[in-house]
Amino acid sequence: MDVYARNLRSLLSWKYLLRPVTTRLPKDRLFRWVKRMVDALLPAAVLLRRIGGRPGARLLPILQYSHLGLPLELNREWANLDTFDMYSPAYDFPQTLSTVHKWFKDCDLENILVENGPNGIGGRGRKKTA
Predict the structure, then answer these.
(1) Distance of alpha carbon 80 from the chain centroid
(2) pTM for this structure?
(3) N or C: which end of the chain has fewer CB within 10 A?
(4) Residue pair 119/10 in contact by the 8 Å Cβ criterion
């Protein structure tokens, strides 16, 4: 399983700064807003990614994938969809490594592995055999 990580960097990200507003918008209105934002900011976001790497990419409130070598229009489509996905969910509760590890222990699992992953915290465990 995976969950978003609760740490200072993630909690100070655009995602959690804007979600108090974006989660209250009707989804169609939010998607239109995201598309306008991506159209306006994508060229700057690509440049910031090129100059500043991953930290540079986090300076603007959109996601984009120029580092994957995508054609511009596919990058724009992914940026629209993933930026919308970042701002739209009603529920998003980041967790700490220790909390996630406790969940696995509380379920009486074995071979537990809980660690930071590419999108937050990943964990796995096995049900104990009788």
Answers:
(1) 13
(2) 0.81
(3) C
(4) no
